[in-house]
Write a structure and sequence with these properties.
10 helices; six-stranded parallel beta sheet; Rossmann fold; Dihydrodipicolinate Reductase, domain 2; alpha/beta; 360 residues
């Protein structure tokens, strides 16, 4: 007999909740149980427009979802400025939590959230979907291969998308009272996570923002970049922007090999994802070409990466519920490191591009 799926509630009707609600229905060990909004009418409209089955409960407040005793886990897609308030309440209600990124406005807020999770024995995970794509595990195998890749030396990431005038005026990601971290919190979160992932989550010793960030009239970052430096000489750079063409690149270079990914956040196709590898590459005799040529690798999947995320999260929740296990600490640790570097970049911008030391 199959186990009862983990029952999810969602608080908030953000656009990203459409994608994650679909992921919950596609994950084999999860089910969509409830949706809550600040008004019953908005919750009903969201449920209807996204084809929620009639058994999904619809509530006219966030609190009603959290007070439902049958809700096991809650997905929180609210604006970042509201995370600390509602995430702490989710934890206090003993609900396991999938929290949209960026997880907080700063590390201090995030520590309040994780403290509440620890005190109440609930699992935490952020909503960085690409981490759960099967391709990511395959790329990790290559980066860990001493013979083909060697010691990591350089990482570069770029995440950008061109925004229309309506986005730049009205989206919550350009409002200082809603998502005040702007492009750094949205696109930059992915850049920093990818860098830390490539570096096996070793924190850099310092971060220095690059000159030329673009801010809107109310001081929210629309475009910026930074360099990261490690004790052993590794260097990383990234650029994130709401102002340039859609790009989602990772380049990781080792002593012996190179990894290239061109769609790391959202694959070009939902159920397959590719990357290219080069190892001990050189030139032909007359320097007219490369040898050996980089190889392309494609990983297929039966469910999209966001459903893999829900599946893994639900597995952790099930282990806690059935076996009395402690929550997995890997995910909040990775989130905190990402937030730590993100805030260091913001601090460097505010300090006229001075280097900011990262506490060990």
């Amino acid at each position: 007999m199959s186990e009862t799926p983990i029952r999810f509630g969602i608080i908030g009707c953000a656009d990203i909740a459409r994608k994650v609600s679909r992921a919950i229905t596609l994950a084999p060990n999860a089910t969509l149980y409830a949706i809550g909004s600040r008004s019953l009418e908005k919750a009903k409209a969201f449920a209807a427009s996204n084809g929620f089955p009639p058994q999904v409960k619809v509530y006219g407040s966030y609190e009603a979802v959290l007070d439902d005793p049958d809700v096991d886990a809650v997905y929180v897609p609210l604006p970042t400025s509201l995370h600390v308030r509602w995430a702490v309440l989710v934890a206090q209600k003993k609900k396991h939590m999938l929290l949209e990124k960026p997880v907080a406005l700063n590390v201090a807020e995030f520590d309040v959230i994780t403290k509440a999770c620890e005190a109440n024995g609930v699992q935490f995970m952020d909503g960085t979907m690409w981490m759960h794509n099967p391709r990511t595990a395959k790329m990790r195998e290559y980066l860990s291969d001493a013979q083909r890749f060697g010691q990591l030396k350089l990482i570069n990431t770029c995440v950008s998308f061109g925004s229309d005038p309506d986005f730049l005026k009205n989206d919550i990601r350009v409002k200082p009272d809603l998502d005040g971290l702007g492009a750094l919190g949205d696109a930059g979160w992915y850049c920093i996570r990818a860098i830390l992932w490539a570096a096996n989550y070793e924190l850099p010793k310092s971060v220095k923002a690059l000159h030329g960030p673009v801010l809107n009239e109310v001081g929210v970052i629309l475009s910026c970049g930074a360099s990261l430096y490690w004790e052993d000489g590794k260097v990383a750079t990234f650029h994130c922007s709401f102002l340039s063409n859609l790009t989602m690149d990772i380049t990781a270079i080792g002593e012996k090999g190179t990894l290239h990914v061109h769609d790391f956040i959202i694959p070009f196709q939902e159920k397959e994802a590719s990357f290219s590898l080069g190892s001990e590459t050189g030139f032909t005799e007359l320097v007219t070409g490369w040898v050996p040529l980089p190889s392309k690798h494609t990983v297929t999947t039966d469910i999209p990466q966001e459903a893999h995320m829900v599946k893994e999260f639900s597995h952790l929740v099930r282990t806690i519920k059935n076996n009395g296990s402690k929550p997995e600490n890997k995910w909040p640790t990775i989130s905190r490191k990402t937030q730590l570097v993100l805030n260091a970049v913001k601090e460097s911008i505010e300090k006229s591009f001075e280097p900011v030391q990262i506490p060990s």
